[in-house]
Amino acid sequence: MKFSIIINHYRTPEVLRNCLNSVKEDLKEVGFDWEIIVTDSATIEKTEEMMKEEFSDVIFIPAKDNIGFGKSINIALKRAKGEYLFIINADIVMDEKGVIENMLKFMEEHKEIGMLGPKLWNINNTWQQSCFRFYNPMTVIYRRTPLGKTPFGKKDIDEFLMKDIFDKGEVTEPIPVDWLMGSAMMVRRSDLEKVGGFDERYFMYFEDVDWARRFWENGLKVIYYPKVTMYHHHFQSSKKSSLWQSMFNKYARIHVQSAIKYFKKFGLKKVRYGV
User: Fold this and answer.
1) Residue 273 placed within a domain
2) Would residue 271 count as lying in a domain?
3) pLDDT by residue (tens digit) across 54-73?
4) Mean pLDDT over all residues of the chain?
5) For the segment 187-242, what is each residue's pLDDT rounded down to a tens digit?
6) Nearest CA-CA partner of 26 in 73, 77, 88, 75
7) Which residue from 59, 80, 78, 41 is spatially nearest to 198, judged by alpha carbons?
8) Of the four, 134, 169, 260, 272, which is 20 to 30 A from 177 by CA?
9) What CATH number is given to the structural domain containing 221?
10) Closest by CA position to 103, among listed 262, 273, 224, 245
11) pLDDT tens digit string along 106-142?
């Protein structure tokens, strides 16, 4: 099989319906065989009924508990048959025709690319940043405390956000980046066998950072590809401005815990592979 699209979902069946309909519309007239796999954490009855009644041709893998992003995707990766794999969150919507075929063709033409990510839009038609430079330990602290407003904190965050690239104007050509947000990533089966799947020690956050770093370390490029666009209804539940809020917000605590795991694994030295 040529292509597998893997959709990660958690308890938002209406959002998943929109995603599936847009994906199936985009794949309707492509010249290759494909499959869609939905992995569903903490499955609810409404989702099961919708999948059975409206999307019986989609492979649906429910889970009783919320098993985390990495583990959920790994289950689908083991099940998938495609030579190419496109991993997206259920809050992704494709409103342009041919975006998947465009990305697939670009990867076929560039064997050195291991991971490819599209340009993303917020639902209010503003650009959503989906590529970044690698963290250093202080970046996590700067982004979650008032220290980020200091001159040295602002400089560090600006570098992380690649402002020297994106503040110059709209990026229209593919560029190598350190890592891509896990909401939309296309990879190749043969490269996956070399790099391995997601590290399941991360329940949430940093698994995409970790994965991109392992692609780079295996000699495979990670590319931001702005020639195709998709919408992403992204909810930043973990971002807080004060230290007190960062300590007691559930998602912020998970983010910090994942950061600790990441730096224990890779060390504290800052690296850069992208622009």
Assistant:
1) no
2) no
3) 999 999 999 999 999 999 99
4) 94
5) 999 999 999 999 999 999 999 999 999 999 999 999 999 999 999 997 644 444 44
6) 88
7) 78
8) 260
9) 3.90.550.10
10) 224
11) 999 999 999 999 999 999 999 999 999 999 999 999 9
**Looking at the domain assignment, is residue 236 inside a domain?**
yes
Q: Which amino acid is at 42?
A: A
* Angle between the N-to-C axes of helices 137-144 and 151-160, in degrees from 0 to 180, rounded to the nearest 10: 110
Q: Count of residues for the chain?
A: 275
pTM of the predicted model as reported, rounded to 2 decimal places: 0.94
Asked if the structure places residue 198 within a domain, the reply is yes
Full residue range of the structural domain in which residue 153 is found: 3-266
| Structural domain count, the chain | 1
Cα–Cα nearest to 172, from 216, 220, 210, 227: 227
Alpha-carbon distance of 37 to 32, in angstroms, equals: 17
The tokens for 34 are 């494909």
